[in-house]
Prior knowledge:
By secondary structure, the protein is an alpha+beta fold. The protein is built from four helices and eight strands. It has helices spanning 3-13, 19-34, 87-99, 167-176; strands at residues 47-55, 61-66, 73-74, 76-79, 105-106, 112-119, 125-136, 151-156. The chain starts with a helix and ends with a helix.
Amino acid sequence: MTLHADAVRTMTAWKPLDRGQESLRQAYLGFLAARPDACQRSCEPGHLTASALLLDHTGDNVLLTLHPRVGRWLQLGGHCEPGDATLAGAALREATEESGIEGLEIDPVPLHVDVHPITCSLGLPTRHFDVRFVVRAPAGAEAVCSSESLDLRWWPVGALPDDPDGNAGIGEMLAAVPS
């Protein structure tokens, strides 16, 4: 199965909790139907990305990265790579690379989706069709900041950093995390 086929399968099977997320799910499926290259960063009109809402083993803290390009605290994640077979696998790979934590566990069912404009590695304005997954760290996990972050920090889920533009999405994701 190709990454594109997995993306179609994943988005078709996903049952969002609210109407806004269902509307976005339908938009993703339309975009995937129109663009066989929708999972490749070379797709200039936009491309799917995979993110990880990385929680500690208790679920009380979330690991956020101070993104160098965006300059805000965000969840971990990024572009799909040619070797990625699934969206969940891409999110897990990104979370492991960006956190330095081994033994992460991912829920393969999407948690949340978001489409946002960005100028990414293409150097051109585009859109990221971000598919977000819950990832859990093992007990005692210690994050190591990579070159992909300005900073990396655990934040209590009830005390996220001040960022009116960035935290709304993180708050929405946290509210959707299954118990």
